[in-house]
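Example (one chain per record):
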Amino acid sequence: NYLYLRDFFESKHPRVVVSKMEATYLAWIDLSYLNKSCEEIYQGLQDYGVLISPGKKYGRDCEGFIRFNFACDRKMLKKGLKRISKYLMKIERTK
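Predicted structure:
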């Protein structure tokens, strides 16, 4: 699932940076290019039906990052990534 997630962002949203996996099922994703606060990203993704952990919970330098759990079946992962993609496209269109 990690490779699918990483490849998804590389092909659909190349400005999104997915950190290298470190023996966990949680992806550390850099969305700082959006210039949105963690709260705005959290709320925006929640509005699209995706629950993430805002990066700010993990330190002051983590604004614009999210933590995303990919320990699910592929069908659920695809559904979540599609929703994230819709959110990102909406933000990118308004810039």
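Caption: The chain has a mean pLDDT of 95.
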